[in-house]
Design brief:
mainly alpha, 7 helices, about 0% strand
């Protein structure tokens, strides 16, 4: 598989879940900055796509699948306590970026504000996890070598 196909695969995986795409980038032996860019762009596209779908579809999906779920309860707790900022920054790593957008809108968050903070959360978590994935093995190996 060539490098561009690997980048596209990581970006497509990140539309659904950050926890899958970042390790996938490391397994493909991509450069860390490329992992950040592919994952961040893919997850941002996922958030934007969900927010653009429209309120009626989101409401129908929420009423059918998520009202009784633990994800909904946890998101409601975060939303009530910290608002769109807390949900946008914390939830992408907990629930995934698209589900965060769905839950946030269902909980009554302003779509623009939620988009801003969800995309910021996606980029912050992506950068942090790629830095951790890049340097943690080296640090752990240096402690083991002592």
């Amino acid at each position: 598989m060539d490098y561009a196909a690997k980048l596209l695969t990581v970006a497509m995986a990140s539309i659904a879940e950050l926890w899958v795409s970042i390790p996938m980038g490391f397994l493909f032996k991509l450069v860390p900055i490329d992992i950040v860019l592919a994952t961040g762009l893919g997850a941002s596209i996922g958030v934007a796509a969900v927010l653009l779908v429209g309120a009626p579809l989101r409401d129908r999906v929420m009423s059918r699948f998520f009202r009784q779920s633990s994800s909904y309860a946890r998101s409601a707790s975060i939303m009530n306590r910290y608002g769109a900022i807390g949900l946008g920054l914390l939830a992408p790593i907990i629930f995934g970026a698209p589900l965060t957008a769905i839950l946030g809108i269902a909980l009554g968050a302003d779509a623009r504000r939620l988009a801003l903070w969800s995309i910021a959360g996606v980029w912050l978590w992506t950068l942090g996890l790629v830095i951790l994935g890049t340097y943690a093995p080296k640090i752990l190996l240096s402690f083991i070598a002592l």
